[in-house]
Amino acid sequence: MSSKFPDHFLWGGAVAANQVEGAYQTDGKGLSTSDLQPQGIFGTITPRVDGDSGIKDVAIDFYHHYPQDIALFAEMGFKCLRTSIAWTRIFPQGDEETPNEAGLAFYDRLFDEMARYGIQPLVTLSHYEMPYGLVKQYGGWGNRKTIGFFEHYARTVFERYKHKVQHWLTFNEINMSLHAPFTGVGLAQDSSKSEIYQAIHHQLVASARAVKACHEIVPGGKIGNMLLGGILYPLSCKPEDVLETQRQNRDWLFFGDVQARGGYPAYMRRYFRENGIQVEITAEDQQALRETIDFISFSYYMSGCVTTDEAQNNTARSNILNMVPNPHLASSEWGWQIDPVGLRYLLNVLYDRYQKPLFIVENGLGAKDRVEADGSINDDYRINYLNDHLVQVAEAIDDGVEVMGYTSWGPIDLVSASKAEMSKRYGFIYVDRDDAGNGSLERRRKKSFYWYRDVIQSNGNSLKNKA
User: Fold this and answer.
1) How far apart are CA 316 and CA 304, in angstroms?
2) E-strand spans in 164-303?
3) pTM listed for this prediction
4) Quick one: pLDDT band at residue 134, thresholds 50, 70, 90?
5) Helix, strand or coil for residue 32?
6) Among 195, 244, 362, 421, the one annotated catalytic
7) Distance separating alpha carbons of residues 186 and 418, to the nearest angstrom
8) What is the pLDDT of residue 12?
9) C-beta neighbour count of 278 within 10 angstroms
10) Minimal CA–CA distance to 412: which of 424, 423, 426, 401?
11) Biggest alpha carbon distance in the chain?
12) Among 129, 173, 244, 395, which one carries the catalytic annotation?
């Protein structure tokens, strides 16, 4: 296909500190909420005791292997790498006044290594983790004081890296707090809706303050939010299904509305009122929220359907987002429905709604890869998945949607977030490690490595439109 991607499109990949770095107590790092979830974001919260271990403690040891990994990303032609800063490397307990210099120095080395190859960092301030000290001492995001602790952290890293990092994100998949409150806001899974939305409100205010700080500190810096793009379709054209679909899409679009438009939409005020949800929103908070993001970033893995038929809804309650399966779509090994056209639809929905640049910062296929006798890994299923999604991105660009870039999720195999598995592999680069933590950590190029290299080199011209 002839390229529809702009000349300065930011091709690359995305990782998260808690899923790749390892070195979980190295150089003064404190315990994070992720460290207490060894089985993933929906696993049991487990207190750490001397001598115990979890797979994320080492992960793929990116902390020590990053020069080798960045060189491999450069070989593919990456223009951009999305990563996160582990908040606990900078402020181990979260409430310190003085940052941990060893943690700051690590990210200096990482960003300098990326700069050697001309790879731009896209940095998430909080990616599914926060200092456990803030949960233990203050009650996590349920406490208004956490806003100040986060702003202090944000301003610290903006000052330190203002000449190295131009693109920032505040909170990863901020809407996931509704489904995984400990992961998102440091609250117990059985917290009330009022408690969860109050914590979310504090996070939204903190995000806005970080946006203001970025605009003040980083010359030419751009900062966005990050949504889990869980777009939903009505299962039927029954008006009640259509209306319920709109309501459920607003559950996650609300987070974009506040961060992009600068205040709470009327539909959320009605939702709070009718469900007895009490959220303290001060005049100072309302003023802070007016500082809006520069661009919208989001993840996209699958779509889902909505129905008012309770019998069908009951069958969907076993998966993460309670999505009703779409009978017209195939599914991955993990039951995630594959819908490339949904990405084009979502891009148009978001651009129509916000009229801000969009950045696809996660998209990929988790699968069980097999190493052949000759050492090759023929992951054609991953190539097909990514090709079909990128073809739809090109179509959305042709529709008039402004897309800044695309960073595939897990360009190198990493520990999956939901189940803390290595066997659920996303990467173009294979890492020799299994779910039990065994393996040499050797890196190996998959077939998709060379495919993605060609996509980037051709600026999308090598993609195959199968329509």
Assistant:
1) 10
2) 167-171, 222-228, 232-234, 295-299
3) 0.96
4) very high
5) strand
6) 362
7) 16
8) 98
9) 11
10) 426
11) 65
12) 173
